[in-house]
Amino acid sequence: xxxxxxxxxxxxxxxxxxxxxxxxxxxxxxxxxxxxxxxxxxxxxxxxxxxxxxxxxxxxxxxxxxxxxxxxxxxxxxxxxxxxxxxxxxxxxxxxxxxxxxxxxxxxxxxxxxxxxxxxxxxxxxxxxxxxxxxxxxxxxxxxxxxxxxxxxxxxxxxxxxxxxxxxxxxxxxxxxxxxxxxxxxxxxxxxxxxxxxxxxxxxxxxxxxxxxxxxxxxxxxxxxxxxxxxxxxxxxxxxxxxxxxxxxxxxxxxxxxxxxxxxxxxxxxxxxxxxxxxxxxxxxxxxxxxxxxxxxxxxxxxxxxxxxxxxxxxxxxxxxxxxxxxxxxxxxxxxxxxxxxxxxxxxxxxxxxxxxxxxxxxxxxxxxxxxxxxxxxxxxxxxxxxxxxxxxxxxxxxxxxxxxxxxxxxxxxxxxxxxxxxxxxxxxxxxxxxxxxxxxxxxxxxxxxxxxxxxxxxxxxxxxxxxxxxxxxxxxxxxxxxxxxxxxxxxxxxxxxxxxxxxxxxxxxxxxxxxxxxxxxxxxxxxxxxxxxxxxxxxxxxxxxxxxxxxxxxxxxxxxxxxxxxxxxxxxxxxxxxxxxxxxxxxxxxxxxxxxxxxxxxxxxxxxxxxxxxxxxxxxxxxxxxxxxxxxxxxxxxxxxxxxxxxxxxxxxxxxxxxxxxxxxxxxxxxxxxxxxxxxxxxxxxxxxxxxxxxxxxxxxxxxxxxxxxxxxxxxxxxxxxxxxxxxxxxxxxxxxxx
Length: 740
Fold this sequence. Notes:
Elements: H1 6-27, H2 32-43, H3 56-77, H4 80-85, H5 89-111, H6 116-127, H7 131-141, H8 147-176, H9 181-212, H10 219-239, H11 244-255, H12 261-285, H13 289-294, H14 296-320, H15 325-334, H16 340-352, H17 359-383, H18 388-404, H19 411-449, H20 451-475, H21 481-489, H22 491-519, H23 524-540, H24 542-566, E1 580-585, H25 597-600, H26 602-606, E2 609-615, E3 618-621, E4 634-639, H27 641-653, H28 658-663, E5 667-672, H29 684-687, E6 696-701, E7 707-708, E8 721-726, H30 728-738
Antiparallel strand pairs: 1-4, 2-3, 2-4, 5-8, 6-7, 6-8
C-alpha cells in the first residue's frame, strides 16, 4: 500500500481532539464552538508539547467549505423574503450598530497610537458580529426558538451584506488613501444589482426545477442537487468579486422559499456539522501564546470595547428598530463578539500591504475571548430585566391603538412604490440578459456567421429574450386599483399616470436603442425609429404578453409555494405581540413517540398551543387530542418566550436513556418444561406464551441436540427444551411458569 496522505492524518488528529474537547464542553454546558477552538489550539502548530497539524493549508480549504455550509444552512433558516417582511427595523438596527461600533473601534485604535489605516481596518473588524458563531451558540444554548433570536439573525444577515460594502470601502481607502463618495455609490449599486438579480432569477429557476422533478428526487439526490446549486452560486459570487459566504447564503435564501427547505436542511445537517467543526478548529490554530502575551494590552482594550459597545449601542439599535426592552437587551448583549468577517478584513489588509502584521493574531484572540464570553453576556442581559412586564401592561393599550390607527398608504405612494419595484426588477433582468448575451452569444454568432450577419442573428435573439421582460415595464400597473383611484381624483393625476407610461416607454426604447446601436452599422436616427417601432410591436403582441404573464405567475407561485404548503396565515399577525410561533423537531429517541396530545397534556403543562404537526410532506392543522406524535415530527406551537422554552426543555429531556434501551433488547433463551408446568399438553397457540407473556417460541431441541421449528400446533411436553425470544423481564416471568 502507498503512503498515507498527510491530510488524512491531520483530519484524524483534529477530529479526535475536537471530539474529546466537545464532550468536555458539553458536560460543562458550554457552547461547542469553544470546544472546537480549543481543539484547534491544541492541534495547532503553536503548542510545543502536543501533536500538531502539518498541512495547515489543506485544513484551511476545508474550513472555507465549512463557512459555505454554515452560511447555506443559515440562508435556509432565515430567508431573504422573511427579512424583507420585517420592514425597516433590522435595517435601522444594523446601520446604527455598525456605525457606532466602527467609530468605537477607530477611537480605541487611535488612543493606542496606531496608524490611520490600521484604525480604519480595526473599526471595520469590530463593526460586525459573527453570524456563524452566534448561530451556533444559539443552537447549543437552545435559544433559536426565542423571539429575539429571529431579530438578531435578521440584523446579522444584513451586517454580512453590508460587510461587502465595508470591504470595498477599505480596499478603496487602502489604494487611494482616501474615501471617494462615487466609489461608495457604485459599490452599493453593484451589490444591489447582483443581489436582486440572483434572487429573482434563482426564485424563478430553482423552485421550478425542484417542483417539476420532485418524483425523481430522493434524499440522496436532494443532497447532491442542493449542494451542487450552493457551490454554483459560490462560484458565481466569487467570479464577480464577492465573498463565497454571500453566494452560499443567497442560494440558501432562495431554497428557503421552496417546499423542500426542511428536507434539505435535515439532509445536509451532518455535512454542515463536520465542515463547520473544521472551520472553528482552524480558527483555534491561529492562536499563538507568544502573540497573546506580547499584545495582551490591545487585546484587553478591544475586548472591552466590543463588550461595552455592543451591550450599549446594540441595545439602543434594537430599541430604535422597535424591539421591546427585554428583546433589545437580549439581542444587544448576544452580539458582543466578532468572527469570520473580522478575519477576512484582517487578511485583506495584509494582502494589500497596508496594515501591520500584529492585527491578525490580535483579532483571533479577541474573537476567541468574546466568543467564550457570549453565553455569559446573554445571561448577564437577564439580570437587567424585570420591569418589562409592568411596562407592557401599562403601554399595551396605547400601542395597540397606535397600530390600529395606522393610516393606509395613499394611492399615489402605493402606485409609485409598485412602479419603482417593477421597473427596477425588470430593468435589472434586462441589463443582465444584454450583458450576458453580448459576452457569450455575440462572439459565437460572429464566429459562425461572420461579423455583420452574426451581429444581426445575435440582435434578434437578444430582442426575443428581452421582449417578455420589457413589456411589463410599460404595461404593468397601468390599470391597477391605485391607477384607477388616481384617475378618479382629477385630470392632473390622470396626466401624471400617463406621464409615467411615457417615461417607461422612453426607458424601454433606450434599452432597445442601445442593442441596435451596438450591433448595427446604420445611423443613430434609424436606430431610434426602429427602437420605437419594436417597442410598439412588443406592446401589441399577444404572444409576448402571454409569455410575460406566464413568467411572472411562475415567479409568484414559487415565492409563495412554501407559505401555502406550510406557513400559517396568521403568523404575521403575531409579530410585535407577546405570542409568536416556533417550530421544534421531535427527537428520534423521544418518549413521546406513539403518544397522543391528550396523553402529553402539552397545553396544561407548558402553556403552549399546538397549531400544527408537520410530517414529511403532510401538514396537520389544529390537531385534536387524539392526534399521535412520531419521531422527527415538526411541532408548530404558539406561545410566549418562557412557555416555548419550557416546552423545548421538556421535549429535549423526555427521551429514552441507553439503559432503558438495553433493558428492552430481545434475547434468546433455552427453557426446559418443568414437571408442574400448567402449559404441559397444550398447543403453543393456546398456551398464552405470545399473547400473555409477549414471548415467541422459535423452536424445540430433540435428544440429539438438533433444532426444529415449532409451529402453532406443536404440543408442549414435559422435559422438552424450548427456545424462546423476548425481553429480559418477560422471559423471567415466563420461566417461573414454564420451568415449574
